[in-house]
Amino acid sequence: MSNRNLGVVFASSEAAPFAKTGGLGDVAGSLPAALKDAGCNVVVMLPKYGSIPQHYVDRMEHIADFYVPLGWRQEYCGLEKLTERGVDYIFIDNERYFKRDQLYSYFDDGERFAFFSKAVVESLQHIDFQCDILHCNDWQTALAPVFLREFYMDMPLYQNVKTVFTIHNIAFQGQYGDKVLSDVCGLAHIPNAARQLYCGPQTVNFMKGALCYSDRITTVSPTYAREIQMPFYGEHMDGILRERSSVLSGILNGIDMVTWDPRTDQSIAADYTAADLSGKKECKAALQREMGFEVRDDVPLMGMVTRLTKQKGMDLVQYALDAVLSRGIQVVVLGTGDTCYEDSLRYFDWKYPNMAARITFDSDLSRRIYAGCDLFLMPSLFEPCGLSQMIAMRYGTLPIVRETGGLKDSVQPYNRFTGEGTGFSFANFNGDEMTGVILAAADVFWNNSNDWKKLQIHAMTRDFSWRRSAEEYSGLYHGLHPEV
Q: Which of 89, 314, 444, 460 has its CA 20 to 30 A from that of 247?
């Protein structure tokens, strides 16, 4: 064994705090630092978007420029380096592709992220870094393992590089017309590549390429890794994932335990800890006043911070709200989404004095909801990992979740015989079943304060740090490179 650290290039289309639209940005903004703490050498690569705040751009150092072969094109690529919170970030600079107002949703996204994937692989020749593991994330980087194997393996620099591909949400796969295969990717003349990228007549699927070519496939929770091998969850990739199940695993995401901490959160009415929950009562009273509710400690307050979509279980919420609200439970929902759900929540807000719908995005209010509520509802149809249930537990707010994906892996359901658990759960996507569990949770709140406090303490003391996730990833990397 050598005594050097493994070199990991972590490729992502977004990373907080530079550019973020969802959970991938949170992961790429937090996991690399934890990997570094776990003993890996890490470089994060992402596009240099036009929307990156100027104060970060001003600190970037130009380290290289070259041209990337992309189909018949030769595209400029600059590498700009920035160290943030001890982690080195390298930004792929091409203004034609990335100097735009948004990250995604352009007609040429297939070409943009094919370029990004190729540029990541090409740039390994231009940085002073020994890459052992190329860790790619979601469809925007999915072609990198394909390009690596088909175009670069005759160069000694690349022969030791192993690839890991993480699925953050299998619903988004990067599907384009087959012209992309020849015109952009330059792969149409390679039968093996063409066969493994096609996913139907005249359709090329970027993610399918990574699923076929990567050395290891991971996803963001153990249960989701099992679920996506089934047709219901697999989005037509379940067959490939069953074939490659021996290299597929799930590693539960973490949360930033410093950012999400009721001891230090400046957005909430009072600080508190698992040892002293008195501040949580103040947070609840403040939230009740803010929502126009009756300020009562003996009434359960249930919150949701969510996108208002079918995937997040809003059909079940619509079905259950009459029964829940008529029992006197206070409910606050924060989020935006499909018009039918927004209008439905406005109706319940109008009908019930103990219902508050806030159809907006408000990060400070979300923190006040996490801190001020007793219960937090996440009845998702599917949920690769989910972060809100972990944040809620961190704040002593007990989650009610459907047993799917990361929700099942992170929430231990209450056992009324032993008092163990960190929340409440139900198995089926069924409104009556969910209503029953909400009312059962309210019953514990009303009638078993000892168990309720035990559940809060169990929830608040769970380790959801990225350190735990990073150690699992580090073990996976070393399995690919046992000699290091």
A: 89
